[in-house]
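pinning this so it doesn't scroll away 📌
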Amino acid sequence: MRAFIVDRYKKKGALRLGEVPEPALRDDDVLVEIHAAGLNLLDSKVRDGEFKLILPYRPPFVLGHDVAGIVVRVGSGVRQFKPGDEVYARPRDGRIGTLAQFIAMNEADVALKPKNLSMEEAASIPLVGLTAWQVLVERAKLTKGQKILIHAGSGGVGTFAIQLAKHLGATVATTTSAANAGLVENLGADVVIDYKARDFEKILSGYDVVLNSLDGDTLRKSLDVLKPGGKLISISGPPDPDFAREQGLNWFLRQVLRLLSFGIRRKAKGRRVSYSFLFMRVSGAQLSQITSLIEAGTIRPVMDRVFPFEATNEALAYIETGRSKGKVVVKLR
């Protein structure tokens, strides 16, 4: 089958379009013919080697973390899906590879595709949807009447998180450029701050939660926004000791991550707020809950561009500019 392959870790290195064997099917797997694959900054970071200490893929490997397609075969132990089902998923770490014609995934990672979405729209959802769900619902336990600041509101995670936070009844502030103010307002943002013109930390205060997806400077400034007991949750790092334990990392890597996050954890403690790092985990069950929200019209996908499969390298380069509004997807069929 045709696939985009990482031959070696290299910053901004081009993926190679080549032939690889069709994936083997395990007893609890579904084999999916891929119709569309969502792209994420995570793909670029994995290709660049930024995660090779905690996600040790051995080149050559197929890249890609978001998929929508049709089940063509199921393993002997599969009970939830059958050939012909339209599904979407974020395959688990160690078994990525959605930039290909087929992928085998554990059925626990997969959900039925929302009926009201195209394959391209569905492929834009899993990684950002699960990330937003796990930050807002699981980690923050966001409730009606609380206030949340969502950084980079026009990005993939941001566009989903704004809608989910409004559904949960929160007041939502977000940072974005002036050009994207209308987009985030339409998604439900109550307070929109042009990060190029205004300092969010001087405007906002008394917030319950901050979702950070930006750099360390933004992370530190976000402490000023939170009230005592508030939660600073970052999906861009630095990883913390709890994450190291969850990943089962060795003693040396646990100490490295402890040092990397020591500064922000200490500052947070001094402000009487909590800091935590979240690295999304796969869950077909949570995706099914997200499907219900999408089919009810509560959340809609926000897509910037759809590229042909052959232009995957150009699509990744476009994401890396940081200017995409919502998600970028490649179309295979």
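📌 and the second one:
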Amino acid sequence: MGILDGKVAIVTGGAGGVGSAVTTLFVEEGARVAVFDVKDEGPADAALYVRVDIADEKAVARAVAQVTMALDLPDVLVNAAAIAGTGAPTHEATADDFDHVFAINVKGTFLCTKYVIAGLLNAGRPGSIVNVSSTYGVVGNADIPLYHGSKAAVRLLSKCDAVTYADRGIRSNAIILGSTRTDMTVAAMQASPEGAAYVQNLINAHPIKRQAEPVEIARVIAFLASDQASFVTGADIAVDGGYTAQ
């Protein structure tokens, strides 16, 4: 038996690097997984793929209802969908830049959480929310400031939900993600004037001196999603190779 046996999970951004690793591990651990993403196709091991813009409230409400009809009430939600957005500093970034990053990273997390928690409350069932934040939601830096701000917001939403719903058996935790070997990192490297040195500089900033593999992140998320973490809520779990320990 896996640690997620009998669970129905939604993974947003489940067609991406971290999200697809979470999906695969969750399936191996016994969960039925619904993936939310905007790509044309989702991972083959998902029980259900829903192409949905998570910044669209009506679309999210329909998508969560679709999961409930097809699989059962979702009792695990992993909010992994995110974009890096512009690297422009505050005085050069536009309001549209801000809206774009916060719509996916913050509003999308909020909306998916809202509709999953509403279902759990109506059914009187416990559940687990795991939000993927970032070291960039803990420390400041001169690059991608809007991303930093959005990931800090995700951390605090996690804590507020943890306090609000703890007595209803709904847990909420955040993963503080370090640099991970995904397509997002490659895209950031290609957009950076540093080129290949961008990734090496990221690696050098982590005491462990390498990037994480997506499955290393997925293992911690699976633990938080499972009943093994039944007394863990409101936590920031740093999976960052020592980055924020410095």
